[in-house]
Amino acid sequence: MITIKSEKAIENMKLAGEVTYRALQAVKAAVRPGITTMDLDQIAEKTIRDAGAVPSFKGYGGFPGSICASIDGEVVHGIPSHKRVLHEGQIISIDCGAIVNGYQGDSALTVPVGQVSEDAMLLIQRTEQSFWEAMKVITDGARIGDIGHAIQTYCESFGYGVVRELCGHGIGQNMHEDPQICNFGRPHTGIRLREGMTIAVEPMITMHSPQVYQGDDGWVVATVDGSMAAHYEHTLLVTKKYPIILTIPEQMRKEFANEC
Ligand code: MG
Ligand code: MG
């Protein structure tokens, strides 16, 4: 069931979103050759707990980490490990979530490890840009297919793959709520967005083929052809105008509002 959020719910989601943002920024700042994905997990968990929040990923469906740390051809759901050491030239996708007063924030980004190839950097940048392309079409009355279409057409114009098996989602008191928000689709189709809906939009984009498989650990999802993948995500609130990003600090929201 799709829920329209109360003002109180949205205030709590902004709080959860800001904690999520801070955890992701702390992890991003720590990414370098030689660090392990478990080190990054601990940085995120400490940031979240120090803020009095709860890491939403920890224990979700049995997931052991506070972040998902997915390297190179891993698309999402990489389990943090002491054994996974980052190396120069890799890219790492970090997905993170926090709960404040029972409400969720969910956000992800992809970071280069040291110097990376131009192709890798472009994949990261264009995956993020596809999120902003989606932002342009998200408004009260728009439809879910408009979001998928915006992401898909932008990414496929570079020959990238759009993963079909994984999608964005509604979010609120639960991390995953209705509706499902795919990164591919036809315009003017699907459920209508309404003011007060909160959704996580999260393009998961591959360098070549969009085909993915699930790893032996039952979590990690990786590209079949081994090529790199990138991920970018924010939780946002649908309004009558431009959507409001919940997984950034209040100050940044004000700056965005002034630009739009
Ligand atoms: Mg996420
Ligand atoms: Mg999500």
Looking at this protein, list some descriptive labels:
single chain; 260 residues; alpha+beta; Creatine Amidinohydrolase; five-stranded antiparallel beta sheet; four-stranded antiparallel beta sheet; globular; binds magnesium ion
Structure notes:
This protein has one domain (7-259): Creatinase/methionine aminopeptidase superfamily (Creatine Amidinohydrolase, Alpha-Beta Complex), CATH 3.90.230.10. Helices cover 31% and strands 24% of the residues. It contains five helices and 15 strands. The chain has helices at residues 7-30, 37-50, 118-137, 144-156, 250-259, and strands spanning 54-55, 67-71, 74-76, 91-100, 103-112, 161-162, 168-170, 177-181, 198-201, 204-206, 212-214, 221-223, 229-231, 234-237, 244-245. The strands form four sheets. Strands 8-7-9-14-15 form a five-stranded antiparallel sheet. Strands 1, 2, 4 and 5 form a four-stranded antiparallel sheet that branches. A three-stranded antiparallel sheet has the order 3-12-11, with no helix packed on it. Helix 1 packs antiparallel against helix 2. The longest helix has 24 residues, at 7-30. It is globular and about 45 Å long. It starts with 6 loop residues before the first helix and ends with a helix. 51% of the residues are buried. One magnesium ion binds next to strand 4 and strand 5.
Task: Please outline the helices and strands.
Elements: H1 7-30, H2 37-50, E1 54-55, E2 67-71, E3 74-76, E4 91-100, E5 103-112, H3 118-137, H4 144-156, E6 161-162, E7 168-170, E8 177-181, E9 198-201, E10 204-206, E11 212-214, E12 221-223, E13 229-231, E14 234-237, E15 244-245, H5 250-259
Antiparallel strand pairs: 1-4, 2-4, 3-12, 4-5, 6-10, 7-8, 7-9, 9-14, 10-13, 11-12, 14-15
Helix pairs in contact: 1-2, 3-4
This protein binds magnesium ion (MG) (2 copies).
